[in-house]
Amino acid sequence: MQNKFDFICKHIETGTIPTDESLSSPLPIDVRLALQSSEYRLKPNPSRAEELTEIVSKNGFHHISTRLWPNLKMWNMCTKSKFETIRI
To answer: Alpha carbon of 25 to those of 45, 61, 77, 87: distances in Å?
Structure first.
């Protein structure tokens, strides 16, 4: 996230989906089509992009998850073929 933060904020601000070439792995076609459909069309959100930039500029990326999503209690993720729970 740190490496792509400006990139992420730009796309939140403009409501655009990045090209597959700019991603480390391409979006599955069904996900891309759903995000581009009129039902789920991403809307530009410059105020959220500005808010994210402000959050990071104050304290960097330390404990970024709970500062971006204050109600976040837990991450579940798959790493190395097993599920791990990370409590925050």
So the answer is: 24, 23, 17, 27
